[in-house]
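Box 3.1. Reading complex inputs
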Amino acid sequence: MSGLFDHEFLETIRRLSLNTRMSLDAGNVGVRKSKSKGSSVEFSDFREYTEGDDFRKIDWNAYGRFERLFVKLFMEEREAQVSVFLDISKSMKHGNPEKSTTASRLAGAFAYMSLANYDRVNLFCVNNRITTSIKSLRGVNSFSQIVSTIENLSYDGESSIVTALKDYRTTTNKGISIIISDFLSTDSVDDLIKLLKYNRQDIYICHVMSPQELEPELEGELRLIDSETGEFLDILTSNAVYDVYQKNLERFLAELKETCLKWGAGYSFVRSDEDIVRVLQRVACHGSH
Amino acid sequence: MGLNFWGLLGLITVPIIILLYLLKQKNREHTISSLYLWKQAILEVQANSPWQRLKRNILMMLQILAVILLSLALTRPYIKAFNENASHTIIVIDSSLSMQMKDNKETRLERAKREAIGLVDSLSNNQEITLINVYSEVIIEAKAALDKTLIKDAINSIMETNSVADMEAASQIVQGILKEKPDAVVTLFSDSRKDFNIGSFDFFNYNTQSTNYSIDLLSYSTARNGAVSALSVLSNHSDTDKTLDVSLYVDGAVFDAKEIDIEANKSINILWDNIPSNAQSLMCQIDSYDDLDKDNTMWAVVKKSEVQRVLLVTEHNVFLEKLLNIMDEVELYKTLPQATQDFKDFDLYIFDGYLPDKLPQDGGIIIFNPPYGGEVEIISEAQRPAFLYKNHSLLRYMEAQGFSIGETKVLKLPAWADNVLEYDGKSIAYSGVKDRQHITVFGFDLHDTDLPLTTAFPVLISNTISDMSTKSIFAINNIFSGERVEFVLNPETQKAELELPDGSVLRLAPPFPVSSFEEADMEGIYTLIQTIGQDTYESQFAVNVPSVAEFNSVKNISDVNKGNIDSEKNGIITDTPSEIQTDTQEDNKRDNTLLRNKGLERVILILLVLILIFEWWVYTDGI
């Protein structure tokens, strides 16, 4: 395994499941609950209990035998289609640690958890277009393909997910779309969510930002250069400028969160220096609601 | 307001600052993920603080402003400000010769009067004003006056004089006023503050760069064959070399003219030969234009030596005898004290250690070592007295030469006499006119002094004989404008008149004794006319402007001692042009020092510090 996805990390995410509030009424059988009341509602399998599972489904007999918690999968469940949109624009390559590292691990984790839950996984690497896409992966054995793709990604180009997804049409049924980006672009998040909603997607946004963007430590007269466009801005740093920047940043974050709330999209803010496991646990909790 | 323009050289750095800003390296480049948030922030900051856009320019402008202020501070700007809160203002105006110098079509005195009136106008109505006019005399024109109109009229009435300013006397008077009014503000309007010894005062300095040439001396000598030759000293007080036309007039007619090349700040001697032996008056004149024409002309009267009959009454005095014998104008007769009791028909009587019962009635009298019980009242005797020279004409030309006295009689100074040598507040030599008769008394025996062994001896005796002569007025040969003239009239003179250079005649006597003449302000030839019976006797003397003394006063020679200064007043040039130049620079320095106290540097420097603080604030977090 590579540095991005070491064994310990994989072991952690294995135990996390990704839940969605979205009800599925189409697609193949999977491990997601369905509201369909078909005849095939019967015991299917055991699965180790993970945080967020309904404890009423715990098989206490199995616990008595193995002293480990298992839940019984006995309802009809259908596989979900999980699409992970990973922003690979150049801006993601900044920060310490780099946002790209966090974003890549998140994308891998989401993909792995989905595969482990028998979901169908699509991975789209996006800047202002979809540069790489892997579609309809199934089973954890496919995860190596995900890892290989993520590890070979080149973070470059300008970020414009809306432009990239303009012609995006899901060929399958409803699903979950996870967007991992810093959203530092002029693109309207509103438009992005609307576009995905139009494609019947349940949307989850992972907003990744670096500590340097949250608390910039710049001094003196500087020429700030945009890593994506090469555009520059001469500034003379001062407390006044920092104050306005902070206010602007807070407003930016608040607006993004509000937009997500408005459209019923999940939102999680991630610092690039934050422990990835905690992030995943937070996301899993959110999904179980 | 005044400036030292050299300080403005600091402004050279202004274009340098601008150039540095133009050539300044680009801002430090820093690549960030995106400008998205920064753009909005900067736009907002600029919207809220319009100065932000100019912030960098503000720093540059502040730095330029700081440099300008620093340069301004280096110029040592000052304003002629007055203490308007003072209850008393003393205005001292110099109306001496040098104040007649023209700067910009206006004489210094005219400008001083104009600015003094401006000062008066600027004062509040409840401020008392004392106005002092300084020339050879010190006149208090107005004392503690509140009426500004009166003061301004008094200022306007101050006339230019040809004399030397007696700043020492003026400062003594001002000090006296300051004792009564300690908070009084003193303001001096002059071209020199030399000898004006006041702790602090405002000084309106009119000593600007000027072009002036002067005739500093005109003297003559008569050879035994009667041939007359003259010597004049020409000075160039400007900073440029010059060729000057100089003419010599004999008895009012042009006798000779010369073209003289003279270097800047130098003096040069000009010799005039073959002057007719019957010449009576000489006038040397510079024909070139300068800023002060009064000192371009100098007069001299050619004296004809007249033999005086002098009777020396002494037991034995080889010093006097030898000296009098070699004096051309003296026809010496010597007698022993016991030889005669009837003294008459001599121009001068010299009694050495002896006095007759009855003093002679004609001619002057010189007494050495008077005996007790005579007409000279003796108080006591003194051994090796430490005596002082008084400022008396008998001692002229011998200020720098001293002599010692082993034993002398201390004399009571009569009311009619002036003290010549003072000892312990009393007199050991005096001179004066008693009942038209000139009497000089020395309390010591020449044998008890080393005077005959010094060069002062012939000078003193010559001065004494000349002053006491009734046949000449040699004593008033070298008179400068503004000086007091003492006339020695013949005891038999019944009427004395003085013809001034402009032809007007002034009556001097009767009444007798003749008072001193204090109005010799007009330069030129004066004629003293004495009437004895049916006969009239005329004698002339010249009055000249004190060019050297006054100009040197302006130049402010700081290292000359008191003796030298007195010498200058008597026409002896003791300094060299190089000294003059050096001292002028020194003087200017001192003036600036004085004026700096009234300068604006402190205000400017405070402003500069505030600007630097503001700049720091702008740079760090400011606007």
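In summary: Chain B touches chain A at residues 26-42, 44-45, 48-49, 52, 55-56, 620-623 (CB under 8 Å).
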